[in-house]
Amino acid sequence: MKIVRTPFLILLLMASISCQPKNKSDKQEVAQTEESDTQMAGKMSEEQLQKYETAYFASGCFWCVEAIFESVKGVKEVYSGYSGGAEKNPTYEEVSYGRTNHAEAVEVFYDPDVISFTQLVQVFFGSHDPTTLNRQGPDRGAQYRSIAFYKNDKEKKIILDYMDKLRSENVYGDRAIVTEVTPFEKFYKAEAYHQDYEKRNPNNSYIRNVSIPRLNRFKENFKSYLKEDAH
């Protein structure tokens, strides 16, 4: 199993740069710039995706996490969304302001003949810091917590075994892994303008200063896992 031994996510910026809108006007500004995106532009159809397996993870801002998993070979599609809470049909404003128990999460469609669930778990742990409680980089709050979701006992065992391996090899020193290992219940797709956000908004300050550097660090550590066009 592939293990990254150094803490992956380093604070690069002042806390003023984050995935979370600082006030309602900021949220409205983002929505207005993307209001024409009424469809999931460039996404595969549900019919096309039916033949693939799914996996669900939360590890900070979904703009970052979506881009990371989309760079992995065998991954056919990734959606940004919300999971881990009980509230139905949550919105970005509700989740990002901590008004629900949901976390920003991703839905990963993958070909198990190319990439295994075990390898996706390795990608998950290798692309964020699982020792920071309710926080990733400049993003703070339970909506940015680390969660590995499982759909059956086999997936649960894979996650727990890999966490034990990380601990036994002292990857994080005396820092405890705080990742939640949670049975998957429901995933709600985020609003259309969040899908492929990093790809479509390369000049956004958060994307330039947090998301792209995080993606590049992942690529440096997982070169053998990348799609040909992601190198």
UniProtKB/TrEMBL annotation:
Provide the active-site residues from the annotation. Answer: C61
Xref: HAMAP family: MsrA (MF_01401)
Could you tell me what this protein is called? Answer: Peptide methionine sulfoxide reductase MsrA
Oxidoreductase as UniProt keyword:
yes
Query: Hey, which family's this protein in?
Result: Belongs to the MsrA Met sulfoxide reductase family.
Instruction: Spell out the molecular function terms from Gene Ontology.
Output: peptide-methionine (S)-S-oxide reductase activity
Positions of region (Disordered): 24-44
Enzyme's top EC category: oxidoreductase
Superkingdom of the source species: Bacteria
Catalytic reaction equation(s): L-methionyl-[protein] + [thioredoxin]-disulfide + H2O = L-methionyl-(S)-S-oxide-[protein] + [thioredoxin]-dithiol; [thioredoxin]-disulfide + L-methionine + H2O = L-methionine (S)-S-oxide + [thioredoxin]-dithiol
Residue ranges of domain Peptide methionine sulphoxide reductase MsrA in the record: 54-206
| Purpose of the protein | Has an important function as a repair enzyme for proteins that have been inactivated by oxidation. Catalyzes the reversible oxidation-reduction of methionine sulfoxide in proteins to methionine.
**Can the keyword Methyltransferase be found in this entry's annotation?**
no
Q: What is its EC number?
A: 1.8.4.11
Report which gene this protein is encoded by: msrA
Against InterPro entries, the record matches this protein to:
Met_Sox_Rdtase_MsrA_dom, Met_Sox_Rdtase_MsrA_sf
Task: Keywords in alphabetical order, please.
Answer: Oxidoreductase
- PANTHER family assigned: PEPTIDE METHIONINE SULFOXIDE REDUCTASE, PEPTIDE METHIONINE SULFOXIDE REDUCTASE MSRA 2
